Amino acid sequence: MSTCRWIIVPALIALIVALGLSSCVQRDEGPAPVTVATMIDSEGAILGKAIVLLLEDGGVKTVDRTEFGTPDILRKALEAGEVQLTVDYTGSGQYYHEGYDPSIWNDPERGYEMTRRLDQEANDIHWLAPAPANNTEALAVTRAFSEETGVRDMAGFADYVNSGGEVKLICAQSFADNPLGLIGLELAYGFKLRPDQLILLSSGNTAEMLKALSEGTSGVNVSLVYGTDGALDALQLLVLDDPRHVPPV
Description:
The protein is an alpha/beta fold.
């Protein structure tokens, strides 16, 4: 297998463009299969299977390694050339290339361009055009809460908090302590939640949080979510718009 590697990158989903892909998968004895691998999350599995089907339909043989492993394991395999094509987040570039101003990844275009350039120069890894879907960390409320209070974005939420509105936020401890998480949102929009207004979990798995929000468990009316969580629509939840992009895109 040649050392040419490809990475399909969104914020969530990207169109596969076969830019010279054949040159990466040809051997003297004929075409070699392309190893497609993804993280173990559900969106990675779904997108990975779609990529495999698309390539196979186009006559490109594949090795299906969807749900390959955790992000760090998958990244090492990509850098080692064990994987030729994967799905990743543009914001992950800040973790792959340390020492740069993290605020770069608060901007969709600057963050993507920085990740694309650094990976191509350092690793010969090529990021294709990203999709507009943004799976960033965010806060969400129920649609009923939004209709009752008029809260639809972070500025409106800040006004609600500062006017004495009842708030019980469920989120991961790491998000609450992160300058690019809750702390950053509080500073950017001018509000402050008290310790008694927080339910902090050790895990960043949002499934439990979404369930608590939709059912109002323990008074929860705000939750940490990921912007494209699959259950958001089914549970009638609304992601609060964050025009300042405080958590990395």
